Amino acid sequence: MSLPPSRQASRPGTPSQRFKDVVLDAMKHYKHETESEAHQIFRQSAGHAIKASLPQTINPDEETVPGIEHPGSTGVIYCSDRAMANGFTYAASHEWANLGQGAPEVGEIPNAPPRPTSIPMPVDSLEYAPTTGVKDLREAVANLYNHTYRQGKESQYTFENVCIVPGGRAGLSRLAAVIGDVYTSYQVPDYTAYDQILSSFKRLVPVPTALDPKTKYRLDIHQTKRDIQTQGLAVILASNPRNPTGQVIKGNDLKELVKLGREGTTVILDEFYSWYIYPDHEKDFGTSISSAEYVEDVNQDSVVIIDGLTKNWRLPGWRVCWVIGPKNLITALSQSGSFLDGGANHPMQLAAIPLLEPSRVAIEKEALQRHFKAKRDHVLKRLHEMHLDVDIPPTSTFYIWLNLERLPAPLNNGLTFFEELLKEQTIVIPGIFFDINPAHRRNLFNSPCHGFIRISFGPPLEDLDKGLDAFARVLKKARKEGMRAFGHSYKKSVDEDAEGKIHVT
């Protein structure tokens, strides 16, 4: 991914001046986060400092209210805050290319059913909904999974296996609240919110597994089984399809993973991207992935599925999602929901019911796959033209996990590249947010995700091109001016004035 010789900056001037330029460029090859302006801005943001070694130690910059500890922000929140420091506003968001937030475009796409435009509100819907959700919607979810993944199987899901929750994070939080003092396995890289979940719910003891790019970030099932035996893992948490790498556990690997749920280990799978599968053959369009296909007994297998309208139905603003699992788990989730979130929006639950009708879902799913595969291929082509080839192209989700390590320093790490793109009114997510690191102790330069950014091709095509044009401008600037132009002069906050002073308000 390094700039080819023909495209590198020509260095005018005397040999002495050229030598100084080379030295200045070399000085930008940082080895530690304390040497990098972008990394220091990150560490100074509330919640991202290295955690104190003793639990009773108080950081006065973060414990601003007695007894309150700042949890730190997810990648999207941090990046949005940094974008606002660079002039981004939601009122004028059309001027920016937001390739960071994990949200699909919500408008019409070719050959898909029409978008919902109105929500009926019968008088009964103005009351609280049950914390497990509206029964008719729970039945619709169970029916859809049985129709799609469990035809011909003796054990079938019923409404008692479904809990409706106000968003995926709420589902994760409800689950975390009912997990006991156990070792919980997670992978790196994975979904950013897991970091906050594992940090906030102290009874979960996090045990990391680093996935290897040499095996396309594949989860080694045999190693997982050994870890269960040797480390006593009780819970496995993973996204599938995988955020941010765009890979998927499927076939026999998924079957073997689900099998662990019959052998004393609880398997929690975040399946929000289960429709975003990009087949190579025409006949495979319209197929999707779920662990539900391999569950034998829906009430005995300890397999938990989280999904919802957010990604597959392209309705993130509805905040209607679900957790599927053994019915005794659903009872526990109802109780944790009563003190955590109070339940999902009642009218929106009722409006969601017809959207889960299997024949409508079949049309929606195929249209989504064709549209998003075309966008994926377009982005990969444009990156290739910029000599930013993707090591492991995504086969699922709407994310591209882009390795920057072959670029010249300091552009070869995600935080610095992110800050340079902000100057071009474009947002991506630095890879370090997918390094699930609850204590925040690791030198960021040692993170296996340090050299990456996540690009979302969820937005409409015109936004994608706007953002990719910004990539091209950064690389053009690197060729013309060398590396001295990068790694510095970042706005620290929204209140920074023209002299670079920060006004604390």
Tell me what the structure shows.
The chain is of the alpha/beta class. The protein has helices spanning 15-27, 37-44, 75-85, 135-149, 168-178, 193-200, 221-231, 251-259, 327-340, 346-352, 358-385, 414-422, 461-481, and strands at residues 97-98, 162-165, 182-188, 204-210, 233-239, 266-270, 303-308, 321-324, 399-403, 426-427, 429-430, 452-456. Helix 6 links the parallel strand 3 (182-188) and strand 4 (204-210). The radius of gyration is 24 Å and the shape is globular. The model is unreliable at 4-11, 53-58 and 497-505 (pLDDT under 50). Residues 98-470 form the Aminotransferase class I/classII large domain. This is Pyridoxal phosphate-dependent transferase. Belongs to the class-I pyridoxal-phosphate-dependent aminotransferase family.
Defining traits:
7-stranded mixed beta sheet, 505 residues, 12 strands, 2 domains, 11% strand, alpha/beta, Pyridoxal phosphate-dependent transferase, Aspartate Aminotransferase, domain 2, transaminase activity, 3-stranded antiparallel beta sheet, PyrdxlP-dep_Trfase
Classify the secondary structure makeup into a structural class.
alpha/beta
Major sheet strand order: 2-8-7-6-5-3-4
Tally of helical segments = 13
* Approximate strand percentage: 5-15%
- Give average pLDDT, whole number: 88
- Find the count of extended strands (DSSP E, 2+ residues): 12
Organism: Mycena alexandri
GO molecular function: pyridoxal phosphate binding; transaminase activity
Protein name: Pyridoxal phosphate-dependent transferase
Keywords: Aminotransferase, Pyridoxal phosphate, Transferase
